[in-house]
Amino acid sequence: MSSRFADALAAQADAARKAFDRCNRQAGLAPYDRTALGRWLKGDLPSRGEFVLALAYELGDPAIYDAWRLDRGDTADSAVKRVVTSFMTLPEPSQAEGARQIEDYLAVRRGSIRDRFVMQIEMDDWPGDDRLLRASVTISWLGALPADANVILLGGYSGLADAYEQPNCLFRDALVIPDGQSAESLLERCSAEITYFADGAATAGPVTRPGKPGASGELTFGNDPVEKADIELEVTYPYPRFHGRFPILFRGYQIRGRARIRFRPRSDWIHSVDSYAFLGLPDAFTSMTTQRSELTVIAGREGDFLRDETGLVFTWSERTDHG
């Protein structure tokens, strides 16, 4: 029996085995037996979402994870029906408490809306290490800034799904670890800085805060909440040169209106840059080639939200004649 997940996985069947084996070696991920991949390609669904998310990232195709969620019935309609059914079975005091918690959650979601969203990804050589690229991700938007905002960069895929659910997380990614390197050594090279200017402020200038290392993989800004601000976030971290793709899931951002995402390869290792959208990105998706093989992608429509299950992937090839 076929499934969305099986079809998405079959599109990369040749690479899936190696990616599956790499995930099985990931610290913090419970491994599957080697026959599991064959069963998935025939229509069976894995039970552990963390493993599926890791597999999707290894293959550079987040659509695999979202196809798995859709096959499991994790869609808006089915989720609403489950919530309403459960809610109606609660005693009245519990319903009142549940309604309060739902309103608190919705307030957080409304407060996390990002307007005028612009993202730029630059890939440059990492000084002194030709196995790595220096990924510099700059994101600017107009919206609320939560208290104690943070960036989460994980040394592997375990915990990445949870990072998408944290309301004060501004950016998150899993570090792809090249052979011969450790997660700890890569995390030490990560940095982040945020600059924000309160909307409507008459006298106060922009505030800049560096990210301070907190829990494993967390860079925290220690800021007070701001109801509405012009915000710019810059995150720098090592990215393996061989990976050849940079996925972006819009689930991590409540984007309203049109989003502009620009990919700028500055490393001489990179050429033949391309991009593709997945899982029903709106019609207003255009890809424009600019100078030096840069790509600018525009997605969304004015006044609409980019759906959580959509995103895009930038891909590139390596030059064989470098140096």
Q: How is this structure best described in words?
A:
The chain is an alpha+beta fold. It folds into two domains: 4-71; 114-318, Sandwich (Immunoglobulin-like), CATH 2.60.40. The protein contains nine helices and 16 strands. It has helices at residues 4-10, 13-24, 36-41, 49-58, 63-71, 76-88, 92-111, 160-163, 183-187; strands at 113-125, 132-145, 150-154, 169-174, 191-198, 207-210, 212-213, 218-220, 226-240, 245-249, 254-255, 259-265, 270-278, 286-289, 295-299, 311-318. Strands 1, 2, 5, 6, 9, 11, 12, 14 and 15 form a nine-stranded mixed sheet that branches. Helix 2 (13-24) crosses helix 4 (49-58). The radius of gyration is 21 Å and the shape is globular. The protein starts with a helix and ends in a 5-residue tail after the last strand.
What order do the helices and strands come in, and which of them pair?
Layout (H helix, E strand, L loop, with lengths): L3 H7 L2 H12 L11 H6 L7 H10 L4 H9 L4 H13 L3 H20 L1 E13 L6 E14 L4 E5 L5 H4 L5 E6 L8 H5 L3 E8 L8 E4 L1 E2 L4 E3 L5 E15 L4 E5 L4 E2 L3 E7 L4 E9 L7 E4 L5 E5 L11 E8 L5
Parallel strand pairs: 1-11, 1-12, 3-4
Antiparallel strand pairs: 1-2, 2-9, 3-8, 5-6, 5-9, 7-8, 10-16, 12-15, 13-16, 14-15
Helix pairs in contact: 1-5, 2-4, 4-5
What would you say about this model in short?
Helices cover 27% and strands 34% of the residues. The chain is of the alpha+beta class and 323 residues long. It folds into two domains: 4-71; 114-318, Immunoglobulin-like.
Describe this protein with a few key phrases.
globular; 4-stranded mixed β-sheet; 16 strands; 2 domains; Immunoglobulin-like; 323 residues; 9-stranded mixed β-sheet; alpha+beta
